[in-house]
Amino acid sequence: MPSIHLRPPFRAEHIGSLLRPSALLAKRELAEEHKCSVADLHADEDEAIKHVVKLQQELGIKTITDGEMRRGMFFEGVFDVLEGMTYMPKRPITEFKPYIPHIGFMYAMGTKEAETIYCSGKIKRTKPFYVEHFKYLKSLVSPEDVKFLKVTICSPSWFHQRHGSDMTYDLSVYKNDDEYFDALGIAYRAEFQELYEAGCRHIQIDDPTFCYFCNEGMIAGMEKAGVDHAALLDTYIRAINVCTQGRPADLTIGVHLCRGNFKGAHFSEGGYDRISDKLFNTLDVDTFYLEYDNERAGDFKPLKHLPLNKVAVLGLMTTKKPDLETSEELKARVNEAVEILVQGNPPRSRETALNQLCISTQCGFASVWQGNPVTEEDQKKKLSLLVETAKQIWPDA
Question: Can you list the domains of the chain with their CATH numbers?
Fold first, then answer.
């Protein structure tokens, strides 16, 4: 196994999104009020990206992102730019699956309709998702640091999980989920290849769906609705594998298993026990970013299924509130995880176990442009503590 402090992921990671600086926040608010266009944000986004790149560099964060400054929400820039996708500003809530945790919240709030994207035609990537974003980010760092830049992208299952196999795509266009996800996979692979050719070596797929399978409420709701949740989990694993197949050997791809991160709110809970064995061993990625910031995530026992050729990034630090963890707490939890890995399947040495781990925030600081209820100073303190703690745990890094 390569020494992972020499290539992504690194010992102190973060999930990607960062708080928008005040100037960009103000301009975003104007755009939301239709007092300026999204195009008018470009210069402010450029300056915001310069700001967060400098912040990451000063704090010693090796993995650098653009903080998702050009996005209103983490998933923007993929489905909305694909040919064959139709934006629906007011789709009836009855066409969203109520057993999906965040959709359940919408039902409970009395929401009658919501915006979404529907696949109405053959999927085709006629323009890049984030290649131009990456090129701008690349221009802000030295050539030797380009390989450390990370691009985040939403999972191919994002819209499917909310509408299911019957209402995600036009059944006269794609007959089944395999056809739909195969077409999406072609688009994702083309994006990954173009990013790679531009110098990208680190991609993170943000997936809020897998953790829903850890939620007993959703499982019960699916069973009541007659949905085979085990088969659907297999479908979503395959969907990502179709996207990652055939990637270059030096392109690291990870998946962030998210429990929801809307202005500090979460949508799902439950340990990884239900999915860990299958996910860790059949998902064709290099890295798992796991949320472990509180009791909602359960214990570390599911890590016993982590194979020797993959890495777990432990999201031990919360971005949902300003309370600052301590190095002692973080180090103690890493030691807990090491003990589980040592006794895992297969067993391994402490040295090997520790080499398979990194630490990070549990999610981004701003999955939506408004951000979580923390300040820029809170964000800085948390990232700085991650770096300092990682140096104590892995002195060679």
Answer: 12-77+124-393 (3.20.20.210)
